[in-house]
Amino acid sequence: MAKQQQYKFCFGPWNISEGQDPYGPTTRPVQTFDWKLEQLKKLGFDAMMFHDDDAVPDIDGKSAAQLRKEAKELKQKLDDAGVAAEMVAPRLWFSPNTIDGAYTSNDPKCRQYAIDRSLRCIDIAGYLDTDLVVLWLAREGTYMREAKNGQRSVELLVQALDKMLAHNRKIRISIEPKPNEPMDHAYIPTIGHALAIAQLTCDAKRVGCLIESAHAILAGLDPADEIDFAMAFGKLWSLHLNDQNGLKFDQDKPFGSANLRVAFNQVRALERNGYGKDGQYVCFDVHPFRTTKVEHWLAHLTNSKRTFMQLLRKARTFDEKTANQLIADRDYAALDQMVIEHLMGK
Questions:
Q1: How far is CA 7 from CA 156, 267, 275, 302, 313, in A?
Q2: How many domains does one find in the chain?
Q3: Domain carrying residue 262
Q4: Is residue 3 in a domain?
Q5: Residue 193 — φ and ψ, nearest 5°?
Q6: Is residue 258 in some structural domain?
Q7: E strands along the chain, which residues?
Q8: Which of 19, 252, 278, 310 has the greatest count of CB atoms below 10 A from its CB?
Q9: Domain holding 258: CATH number?
Q10: β-bridge partners, 183
Q11: Per-residue pLDDT of the chain in tens (346 residues, 90 and over written 9)
Q12: Is residue 211 in some structural domain?
């Protein structure tokens, strides 16, 4: 019998959020990074993911020497806790320089700012001993089609990717697509778009993708299909599991919270494709509900991990032989009920 895959788990400091949303202020007190790191280790997670300014606060105002010093200090904290850095992502969408986009801004000075910051992010990744840089292309789109040329924007994205790939020959870039929010429409809305633009770069083998469950749902797609698609190319290098209740704002609900069957199929897709065998982590990009009390602050993380592990057991005990017989007989009604009853514990 083949040895079963062991999964490694991860979350980011922003996943222990204080409850602020566009319509109201925080509902919980701010906690220090050190406290969050301690909770990550206590909960049995293996790695932490970072934005560049999670690793080095106020990054834009610091010299290269300060950046190196603070990143190295963080690396020591992680080493002392026995925690790895999973990835680093440039937080480009917060800056006043990126109001009209980052790499695709109509202002060349703003485009240069985005590239310069991305190269500093790559340096931080090196100091933290991770080769994975994630790009959520948050403002790479437009509120009105006439304001930008879509073809030119693709060219600008490729130019930026090429400069990042040339800056460090060891890093891999993982594009995290999202169809909307904060922009009306994004230029790279799906995994297919991410893998297509990778082929235009100077080193396509170092450009892959990150799938987030909610982002796939917001695009009207099934996250399990997106996982299968990306892994068919060998390009699923990271993963944000969460859930989403329909085509609303990005909710970042606990994994399996809105649709347990969709979550089950994501775990099955990870299992059948051998996700994690090349060192990838299962990351939970989930947030506590705004109503959550301080004493329940970490439940969304522990619940997401528990749900994953229980669905993993369901995936591994699913009667594949019987399922294949039903598929061969095209008895999809029986297959449908079989899945439902398996999830119900019958």
A1: 37, 11, 8, 15, 13
A2: 1
A3: 9-297
A4: no
A5: -65, -40
A6: yes
A7: 9-11, 47-51, 84-89, 132-136, 141-142, 172-176, 185-186, 207-212, 236-241, 282-284
A8: 252
A9: 3.20.20.150
A10: none
A11: 567 889 999 999 999 999 998 899 999 999 999 999 999 999 999 999 999 999 999 999 999 999 999 999 999 999 999 999 999 999 999 999 999 999 999 999 999 999 999 999 999 999 999 999 999 999 999 888 999 999 999 999 999 999 999 999 999 999 999 999 898 889 999 999 999 999 999 999 999 999 999 999 999 999 999 999 999 999 999 999 999 998 888 999 999 999 999 999 999 999 999 999 999 999 999 999 999 999 999 999 999 999 999 999 999 999 999 999 999 999 999 999 999 999 999 7
A12: yes
Q: Residue 105 is encoded by which pair of tokens? A: 């801004």
Active site residue 193: no
Burial 121-152 (b: 16+ CB within 10 A, else e): bbbbbbbbebebbbbbbbbbbbeeeeebeeee
**Burial class, 176, CB count within 10 angstroms (exposed 0-12 / middle 13-18 / buried 19+):** buried
Closest CA to 308 of 4, 3, 2, 7: 7
Q: Which of 21, 34, 46, 51 is catalytic?
A: 51
SS3 label, residue 85 = strand
Q: Tell if the pTM clears 0.85, that is, is over it.
A: yes
- Residue 288 belongs to a domain: yes
For helices 320-328 and 332-344, the axis angle rounded to 10 degrees is 160
| Residue 168 burial class via C-beta count within 10 angstroms: exposed 0-12, middle 13-18, buried 19 and up | middle
51 catalytic? Reply is: yes
Q: Which tokens sit at 254?
A: 């606990």
